[in-house]
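Morning!

As promised:
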Amino acid sequence: MSKTITDVVCPFCGTLCDDLIVTTDDDGKKILGVDNACAIGAEKFVHSSDHSHRVTRPRKMQEDGSFKEITYEEAIEHTATILAKAKKPLMYGWSSTSCEADSVGHEIAELCGGIVDNTAAVCHGTTLIAVQNVGIPSCTLGEVKNRADRIIFWGCNPAHAHPRHMSRYSIFPRGYFTGKGAKQRKIIVVDPRPTDTSTLADVHLQVEQGYDYELLQALRAAIRGEPLVGDVIAGVPKETVYEAAEILKSGRFGVIFFGMGVTQSLGKDHNIDAAICLTKDLNDYTKFSIVAMRGHFNVTGSGQVLGWQFGFPYAVDLSRGFARYNPGETGAIEVLKRQEADAVFVLGSDPGAHFPMRCVKEIARLPSVAIDPHITPTTEICDVHVPVAFVGVEVGGNCYRMDNVPIEARKVVEPPEGMMSDYQFLSAVLDRVKELKAN
Amino acid sequence: MDTVKLTAKEVPELYLEAEHITPDVFAGKSNQEIGDLSVHMGNQTYKLSDYFTVEGKAGAIAAETKIVIAGDVSKVKYIGMKMTAGEVEVLGNADMYVGAWMAGGKLLVKGSVDSFAGIAMTGGELIIEGNAKNYIGAAYRGDWRGMQGGKIVVKGNVGSDVGSNINGGTIDIGGNADVHLATHADGGTIIVRGVAKGRVGGQMVKGDIYCLGGVERMMPSYKYDHTEEIELDGKKMNFQVYFGDLGERHGKKKGEIIYGKIYIATGVSETTSAKVTPRSEKKVHLSDLQTNQLASALKEMKEPSVQEVRTYIFDNFGVDMKPSQVSRLISSLKR
Ligand code: SF4
């Protein structure tokens, strides 16, 4: 016999699908099948329930670079000591865990006078800067499904990165006012390359690599009916720009989805700033919204928790006892590059694979801890690696979808014997840090 | 005017935050009191005298106080922050936030500075003889008021985002400027004597930008209006005047629409043509020679991890590869 669990939340990408059906064996130890999920989502469940390749106890790096198993108590002591001793510890990650764990981690950072930064540093942090500059007219994915008839995908490729986004929300579903589904929607894709998403588009604006800002401002001028200089605007023929402007203005409800193609190419926050202003402008003619395609399943939640605790969504410097925020100075990459930190704590992220080499070397040089269920390039270079249970598979917890809707992730199977969750681990570290700081 | 001389004793381990180094704070204090002022490094608080020797004498008020800073302060932030009067002279380089929120007085840096110098400045004079990095005279994060008054002179080059949200004052750049000059500007004047990299005056509502060395690529949302003769540094020069940013809302004055203006010196390279400058051409491939060297190194390393190989490539060839690329490379070399 097997057990079936319905309405399971997928802890992989920012779409946070909440309609999965997971089948487990009788004791709730092993996952036998996952329905409704896309290939990557299903793989995460199946992969995590296969315990054979997993590290189940903390490991400490030895002189010769090999790892030796240590107990959770030793790992807690090590983590608390390096954080309490440091003058400016950097605590990075936070995106692949629950909001509850985040809030405990931030409390440690506050006690230790550290810097808290999440993976927005390398993806949508620039979006947050732009939002702070010009605000954001946004909506939920439910509204997109039920109302939107103009969809723009700017610098993102949901066909690969958020596989069920298009079928659940943006292109195909039939909603309350969108009974004809895909037939009723006009799709514009802005991407320098042809992608699997762009094959579904009515208009594909093949923008010249790195000139999104120019195109956005040109679109804004075109919407105002202003003349544009030159026949080719950022790689796109002028007529196509005017045509796109007309399509956008003529819709009843439009949404711009944008991804790392614009947030991390030249201009960064300025691109998003212009995209938000475009959305604002379009609201003079029709209803328009803009939504960021967030990557990690709970990167949005990490920003939310930081927001309610300290007032800023990422790159928060608590070293002086009050919160300061200035990406460019207090972000993880700058801090590592400029050698501003003297200890590194990584949770639920893999800077070893995504940061520039100079930063990776800096992590390897400093006292460091990595909390991660997997073995990753980061855990390979940190002094101590603490494996924890998978959030959303082996423990529950609160997560935020890319449109800032909180969804409670569920536990479906038991973690390996004796394994801690990151919430438990962080709480233990917090207690120990309090003791150390009291003396 | 009385002068206080600060000499840096040592380079701090991390970065030092020294927002008290201003004439306003020093004025009327004895050298002992000045030495007891706090400086911060991470979560620790130290005394100014732990890192600097204090000599000379401070004036009774800020306007009569000059601070000369010698020694290596390239890891010291916030020098001259919020100063309203008096003078500060840094003999070498300084780090971030030099003259941030400055309201008056004169601040001279003989070397170069890092980012955020003169942000949200309202008055006074900030002179940087070397280069400056990003966000010079810009707004602090989330603020809509950048530089509002005073003057910033950078003799060398500047980075990106200079003068964003500027709505008053003048920024005079001797060298080149990187992208995003005067974004969201609502007033003020910027002069670039070298080449401006592009995206000049994006989302600008009002203000004047003079580009003496031309613009690498103009925004498509600017339109050419007329040619004008203007006197600059006592010399008459011809400029082509562009109006924009056409994507923005613009106010009206006496029935006429007020645009942001970009003045481009006549005779410098034509600017509106879509000149393609590939920006992100980073080298991510190894040459055959390097691949061979790596292959023999791999044999000696015996089952190296991806991270080790990535480090090896970075150290020896200066190429920063993604781990996924590295693992593909390893498996191709094994074959
Ligand atoms: S689209 Fe994203 S959230 Fe949905 S099943 Fe796939 S990976 Fe999971």
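The radius of gyration of chain B is 25 Å.

Hope this helps with the figure draft.
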